[in-house]
């Protein structure tokens, strides 16, 4: 076949078109209705979830307009006067807001650097245990704090960190301090208290997904590695961790996207007048400005800005992790 006939033949072949694109809209709607009638019992189970999302997730989006208005409790969403970007200009010049941003990022990066790694290590340690009963005992003990509210755990921490509490008694007996003090009143220690207490509460629960993935790894991989002389650490590095790469990437994306969303419950329980300068995070700042001081427009503007930045962080983290997973996104 010469070049002329080849080009003519290739030109005569129409480009591939998805089958759904060839059908008129009316026919596609008719097919959708037919499919729905055939599986209406199963399809109807989705309707409550859709209705819930519309009522509680999509309709409230209209309320974000008060970020661009001067809204008060005597106004409605439609009667409140528009102020444009004035609320956002106030945010940029508010030193208390930037103090909350610094505290949020400091605590979040500590949680990311320490709290992200510990569940992976703990999951591998639990998986490597051979004693069945002891393995279940360790899992139960590590999961337990997750099911306790921050009100309960916060009360425990407040008691333990008091002048006559467990930690002061322990440090005195070890000779590490000469005089007891209330640790929660020391603002310089708050970031570490928030980080380590959050890890204590959530590390065990964070192992569930990792253990589920490790349970699906083919045991023959480990048998072949042992035959080749690989020890446990080499098996973990070459078999366990590569098989966990996707779920680790997914958790990393979600963690990075939530860097500006520190735990509000934890902050409200552990924050006091003495450590506020290091304990105030963006979420508690928004809560205080909106619910305590009644500045709803300003609080909404802060929340909207944080949400936009969180979406950007989510996309950036997804882009980076996709590069580490052979350009395959886990989202």
Automatic annotation (TrEMBL):
Q: Which PROSITE patterns match?
A: ABC_TM1 (PS50928)
- Tell me the CDD domains matching this sequence: TM_PBP2
Q: What's the domain of life for this entry?
A: Bacteria
Signal peptide (residue range): none
The places in or outside the cell where this protein is found are: Cell membrane
Q: Where is this region: Disordered?
A: 1-23
Domain (ABC transmembrane type-1): give its ranges: 101-317
Please give the start and end residues of each transmembrane region: 46-68, 105-127, 147-167, 190-215, 236-260, 296-317
Keywords recorded for this protein, A-Z: Cell membrane, Membrane, Transmembrane, Transmembrane helix, Transport
Give the bilayer topology: Multi-pass membrane protein
Please name the Pfam families in this protein's record.
BPD_transp_1
Q: What family does this chain come from, according to its entry?
A: Belongs to the binding-protein-dependent transport system permease family.
Q: Can you say what this protein is called? A: Aldouronate transport system permease protein
